[in-house]
Amino acid sequence: MKFIVKLFPEITIKSRPVRKRLIQRLGTNLDVMLRRVDEGIRVKTTWDRIDVHCGDGNEVLRDEVVSVLSRTPGIQAFLEVREFPLVDFHDAYERTRDAYAELLKGRTFKVRVKRSGKHDFTSVEMERYIGGGLNQHTEAAGVDVHNPDLYVDVEIQQDRLFIVTERHPGLGGFPLGTQEPVLSLISGGFDSVVASYMTMRRGCKTHFVFFNLGGHAHEIGVKQVALYLWQKYGSSARVKFITVPFEEVVGEILQSVHHSHMGVILKRMMLRAAERVADFMKIDALVTGESIAQVSSQTLPNLAIIDQVTKKLVIRPLVTMDKQEIVDLSKSIGTFEFAKGMPEYCGVISDRPTTRAKLDRVLEEEGHFDYEVLEQALKRVQVIAIDDIVEDVNAHATVEALTRVGENQIIVDIRANHEQEKKPLNMPGCEILSIPFFKLGTAAEQFDADKEYLLYCEKGVMSQMQAHQLQERGYSNVKVYRPEGA
Ligand code: ATP
Ligand code: MG
Q1: Tell me: the pLDDT tens digits for 195-242?
Q2: Where does the THUMP domain lie (predicted)?
């Protein structure tokens, strides 16, 4: 089985050396990720495309390769092809007919031939030959060059013939790691997660910084969604997840700052701290999920005041997007359910916040703030490699995780439906409820107080977070099930 990977068009308009560097990086990224799928997969990088070969006839493998290619930044589209030696027009027609006859039944079509290399025929001549043959010898509804139901795509590269059996859209963007790294302020809501995705897609290795305002479940939730993003779109490069304990900073703001200015000043404190972390990591740019006027601290005057505390470039990928567009994007990248279920933790709920902060007033308010508190927070920063999140969450778990199921205990499988179907829990004799994590909040209301409910998910991270949240809501009979060796 073979795939032809087409480059994101912005790569192809770069100068020769830049283009070469970008393509090579894309090749390496694919190599890293596809080797995890199967050792035997081969990635071949050329000037204008990347070829991926994997073993024939293995549908599971094929699906996994399609999945990797469709979420790797830097790819415009990729074609699934059958490869043959180029013999002559008639042979090419017969091969095309074998691949397309079924699909063509009752539909109009147009043949497209793309050619590279030297040949003594033109692409149009070949299109006519194959098209004529298909029109006569299949049950197609005829040729329609303007608005066909189906395109029949054929590629010729030197002496090889490729029949395209499927065309998949890619993610676009630049290969990860070809642009400089950024540090994304992630709070786990819809916005900052989508913003992080956007810088990843644009080719920036995106590290995460989280300001912990005091909710343990919130911290686990943010780690969980960062891990998801990274595994899905960015796992060719290792990144860091940094937690800054911010409870005391919030406490100090509550004591020393007028309520109307708390929101803006909290953001300024976050940027100050993020700048220090970024300095240490030699990163020039910070990312936030803010967009004009979405909330009171995000009006243009306030954003301008917030920006003044840092010399770093502050990138706001969502700045002109509407909330609905952001939510739609979060659905399409798969982070919607995470964000929806994120425990809200807002330490600074200010009453009638200013929408038009003035610098002199802000400085006056900050004059009462004890910066030693911020320094102390920065001394207690925790840095972990993102791929260690699972171990980290389990090591710091606060909800008891049981390795066995006893009497009066019910397993609750909280994985998404498609994951449950893919890897069903096989536990004869146990009662198992299937409640995807985003339905757990309401489903828990029906729980029987005399029984114990053990939440199960694949890595033990989501179950830990959800159990923690439910316990905080008073469900002390909710725990985690984590089988030995999982
Ligand atoms: P989000 O949907 O990303 O939570 P929001 O709409 O709730 O954002 P704010 O709470 O004003 O907006 O936060 C604005 C931005 O500041 C966020 O998008 C994020 O980049 C950053 N931010 C806010 N809280 C935190 C936090 N606890 N840790 C890290 N970054 C944060
Ligand atoms: Mg928020």
Answers
A1: 999 999 999 999 999 999 877 888 988 999 999 999 999 999 999 999
A2: 63-167
Report the pLDDT value the prediction gives residue 113, as an integer from 0 to 100.
97
pLDDT of residue 370: 97
d(CA 463, CA 399): 9
Mutate to test the pocket of ligand 1, among 184, 192, 248 (most ligand atoms within 8 A of CB): 192
**Which atom of ligand 1 is nearest the CA belonging to 193?**
3
Distance CA 324, CA 442 (A): 25
Q: Does an H or E element contain 10, and which?
A: helix 9-12
Predicted pLDDT at 464? 87
The mean pLDDT of the chain is: 93
Q: Name the residue with the closest Cα to ligand 1, atom 25.
A: 187
Q: For the chain, which ranges sit under pLDDT 70?
A: 344-350, 486
Do the Cβ atoms of 223 and 238 come closer than 8 Å? Answer: no
Q: Distances from the Cα of 238 to the Cαs of 227, 363, 388, in angstroms? A: 11, 39, 10
Q: Does the C-beta of 286 come closer than 6 Å to ligand 1?
A: no
CB-CB contact of 184 with 109 (8 Å):
no
CA 290–ligand 2 middle distance (angstroms): 9
Query: What pLDDT was estimated at residue 57?
Result: 77
Quote the ligand 2 centre to 119 CA distance (angstroms).
Answer: 60
186 annotated ligand-binding residue: yes
Concatenating the DSSP letter of every residue in 12-64 gives HTS-HHHHHHHHHHHHHHHHHHHHHH-TT-EEEE-SSEEEEE--TT-HHHHHH
Q: Is the CB of 92 under 6 A from ligand 1?
A: no
Quickly list H helices, 38-165: 59-70, 89-104, 123-137
Cα 285 from Cα 444, distance rounded (Å): 42
Give the phi and the psi of residue 236 in degrees, each rounded to 5: -80, -15
Closest residue by Cα to residue 239 from 248, 229, 254, 247: 229
Maximum C-alpha span of the chain: 85
CA of 192 from ligand 2 middle (Å) equals 8
Q: Is 288 in the pocket of ligand 1 (CB under 6 A)?
A: yes
Q: How far is the CA of 471 from the centre of ligand 1 (A)?
A: 25
Nearest atom, ligand 1, residue 209 CA? 29
Q: Using an 8 Å Cβ cutoff, are 193 and 334 in contact?
A: no
Q: Is 457 a catalytic site residue?
A: yes
Q: Is 290 helix (H, G, I), strand (E, B) or coil?
A: coil
What element of type H or E holds 471?
helix 461-472
Residue from 248, 196, 245, 242 nearest 223 by CA: 242
Is residue 298 marked as binding?
A: yes
Residues with Cβ < 8 Å from 139, sequence gap 6 or more?
Answer: 101, 104, 105, 106
3-state secondary structure of 23: helix
Is the CB–ligand 1 distance for residue 290 below 6 Å? yes
